[in-house]
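Q: Can I see a sequence and its folded structure?
A: Here is a first one.
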Amino acid sequence: MTSAIDALTPTPIAIPESTLQDLRFRLRATNWPDDDGNEDGSYGVPQALLRDLVQYWAQEYDWRAAERAMNAYEHYTVEVSGVRVHFMRKPGVGPSPTPLILSHGWPWTFWHWSKVIDQLADPAAFGGDPADAFDVIVPSLPGFGYSTPTRPDMNFWKIADVWHELMTKTLGHQRYAAAGCDVGALVTGQLGHKYADELYGIHIGSALTLDFFNGDRAWDFTGGRPIPPGLPDEQRSRLIDLEHRFAVHLAAQMLAPSTLAPGLADSPAGMLAWILERWMKWSDNDGDIFTVFTRDELLTHATIYWTGAAIGSSIRTYANNNRYPWTPTHERTPAIEARTGITFVDYENPPGISTSAERIRSFLNSDRAGWYHHVNITGHPRGGHFIPWEIPDQWTDDLRRTFRPLLGAAPDQPEHHR
């Protein structure tokens, strides 16, 4: 039987050699500023680290090898409501694979899902049950990767509308599953809010509320609140560390993306520095980024941003999340009615929370829990912000645990794991 995807024309990734030559030229021509006193990274990305990566990117990095690895999967580029969407696909291998769409975050790319896509599509090849197979769709978010250019007003809840049309109209699925992390978790949460009846369920990393970017001071991670007096030293240090991770990221990208974008879009070294700092600070790497990403892996993600001309449009989504604030499409509770699985990692625990068990209890006692119809919550002691990249086996297990009962008779009794 012919499926909707059979009617699409594959579009393998094939970056022109002229684009790569221009990239190498710009890298070699980098105008380096003074960076005295920053050997410890206290002023930002240490220049010695950045220079090493830039030199390797210009002289040794092999994009064509990365391209071949990506093209081992199916790639398509389609128009959905006038929005250009690139997606990667791995057909499911099993008796009845479930359609699953995976949404990445920032500064992620679609390739951050590369460590889980094979396990999800063909579990039997990894010693699993073929009944757990998914037909895996991995798009580049509009304005990211190769889903460029995009509309200037694109944000997370508008992306959810694009995803739903992609899955139901373009690809012809009556129901599907969805999962995501970071901004992709908000996209996925919006799917679970607006389109719950057409989803089997969702699985997300973290569990932000959908109004996270609403308000006059959404760019301030603290919400303008002062540090409470009398906090134990450990909690105060943890709170400041969290603020340092996100303050410049949220403020710059939400308040002035068009000021930042020209420099990042003109200088690959500048672009790499901006996104590298997030990979360094947000991953669970014990102070060594290369325990999470190899040089080639870092530069593959960076090259996707560069060759897709995506850095400017990707950072603008932050401003648009605030400029076009989320509003509910219904007033029922929970707001996210789709059955939801959640993965937490201890690296992102808030101040005063030390273990996965404490993180789960804290979430269940918070007002955030009431947003979700949660059926499976898991915490892990290792892994950082890039969960499916950093702990792919655990993420895959968590997701399967969420969806197994939902694809049959879904129970309402939630499960908590640590």
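Q: Show me another, different protein.
A: A second, unrelated one:
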Amino acid sequence: MSTDYQRAREELGRRLRELRTERPEGRLTGVQLAQRLGWRQSKVSKLENGRQTPTADDLRAWSEAVGQPAVFPELQARLRGFESHIRSWRRQLTAGHAPVQETWNALVSNTTTVHALSNAAVNGMLQTADYARCLFERHAQLRKTPRDTENAVRARLKRQEWLYRPGKRLNLLMPESVLWGRICSPEVLVAQLDRLCGVVGMDTVNLGILPLDGTLPLAMGNSFNVLDDRLAVVEDWHAELWLDDAETIALYRRVWDTFAEAAVFGAEAQQVIARVRRSIKV
């Protein structure tokens, strides 16, 4: 968890404690407030000490329980302010994967250039339907989220229309290890590799592969996407980090540029993909 995020959560907790202890009608103890809300007292303590992130419903209930419902918009604004940077998968996937994909569709639609490093799976902008379907099903199983696989696949493939719009540019780096990853059946993986071979040379796609026998300039970190010069989105198991300050965005662009120096592009990238493709027995 980032220091800025934790600091903001602690500040929100102090504000909640203030509303409980300095209410015009008189101070409430943590136990009394928990009883009013029907919560365990430990939840009140965790929220006030910045050890748990409240939901908007938690904040609304708190403001009403302390007799100050008018402060809810302020509390909600504070929550949105720091949650805009750390978007937990638990919250994002409450209604399934399709809404998350639609959010990304809108985000990418307003973007001209994407710089992406995908080190765990083929980037969603180039996935086949079957490859995407496999990923969504596995993640729904892992996270125990609603299974809306077909809607999620359709939304992800819809985003790929961006690749056929003039003036757009996807600059994508992938380690060769991604090509070997058996996260789907051999038949699906072969079709996915054929798809990658087919996009090499597209005007809107600049695909680089980091060969297994090559020298890496840096230790490989998390996958990320940089959208124009306005947003860097970093993927982790618990959340996406949406980072919009200029210094951080510039850092991720430097990371991308550094890895690009070790990648192969064009015909050489196609040769690496084809070599992996030939090794797969179907």
